[in-house]
Specification:
By secondary structure, the chain is an all-alpha fold. About 80% of the residues lie in helices and about 0% in strands.
Length: about 220
């Protein structure tokens, strides 16, 4: 059992380290609200991963994979959510912030509290950031397919399939949370520069464009499949 968990943990770490929507969202929210907001986003994404693990354990993810209509619906909703997030980022920074608002922008303080942001962007509360991270992961059926396709390779003989799948799902969620929190920590070191008005606007626009592109590509792949 220990060897199976260790092997799965290594594989899950490699997959988690690949940049994806969750990482982009964590970085974006770090800029908008500081380390606390970024951490809330990371924890939300980890809970989403755990929810997919539970679904996989009880066969829901497998049912989605077999039922094309359900899989397509979830995939399209996830793509739409990415496009909405990207559109919000572009709309909030559609023009330079007024000089007075820019003067109020500063780096995060030593406690990780977010400094004021331009009024157009608006503050991002940790609760809302958690919800964004949760939905970003829940609306990504690839996470569920990952469990259905990969977990069986690591299930030890002589153990309950349900129990082992839930255990591996918890391991994956912890790895996801740990990696994304590490991303938050590294981002926090450069928040002072990232939160400069011009840098922040450009990063928001770039991230918004990437999120829209990801959502558009996912929708196109789903429709053409």
């Amino acid at each position: 059992m220990t060897a199976a968990v260790a092997g799965f943990a290594l594989f899950a770490l490699l997959v988690t380290m690949a940049p994806g929507p969750d990482t982009l969202l964590v970085l974006r929210n770090c800029v908008r609200g500081g380390r606390r907001t970024g951490a809330a986003t990371a924890v939300g994404a980890a809970f989403g991963s755990l929810a997919w693990a539970v679904a996989a354990a009880f066969g829901l993810a497998a049912a989605l994979q077999r039922w094309d209509a359900a899989f397509t619906a979830v995939r399209l909703v996830g793509a739409a959510y990415l496009v909405v997030l990207g559109g919000q980022a572009l709309w909030a920074h559609r023009r330079p912030a007024p000089a007075a608002a820019c003067d109020r922008v500063a780096g995060a303080d030593e406690t990780g509290q977010a400094a004021p942001v331009p009024e157009e962007a608006g503050p991002l509360a940790p609760v809302r950031a958690f919800r964004q991270g949760l939905l970003s992961c829940l609306l990504n059926p690839k996470v569920g397919i990952f469990f259905v396709a990969v977990v069986p390779q690591f299930l030890p003989e002589g153990h309950s399939v349900l129990g082992a799948t839930l255990l591996l799902g918890a391991v994956d969620a912890l790895i996801a949370a740990g990696w994304l929190l590490l991303v938050v920590g590294c981002a926090g070191r450069v928040l002072r520069r990232l939160r400069q008005p011009r840098v922040q606007r450009n990063l928001e626009r770039a991230t918004g464009g990437v999120l829209i592109a990801l959502g558009t590509v996912t929708a196109a792949e789903t429709v053409s499949a």
